[in-house]
Amino acid sequence: xxxxxxxxxxxxxxxxxxxxxxxxxxxxxxxxxxxxxxxxxxxxxxxxxxxxxxxxxxxxxxxxxxxxxxxxxxxxxxxxxxxxxxxxxxxxxxxxxxxx
Length: 100
What we know:
Strands 1-2-3-4 form a 4-stranded mixed β-sheet, covered by helices on one side. It is elongated, with a radius of gyration of 18 Å. Helices cover 36% and strands 15% of the residues. It is of the alpha/beta class and 100 residues long.
């Protein structure tokens, strides 16, 4: 289609890998015609051709925060829920142009 997107932000690296495959099958040049970004920073993301730009999240910190929330809930079942924000990092790789 002439009005196709110029970028796709997938909900996971596995979905983004599917986008890379579909682009390759359709002859769409990544990153010249389409930028692709995933989420999770799976090890395979770096090995893709082109290497997948992705959002890295601190999984160990995420696990610790989840365990802390469960322990806190057990200790105080009626306490208000709290939110936790953890830093993420965009890892710019070859599936996006460098000027982003």
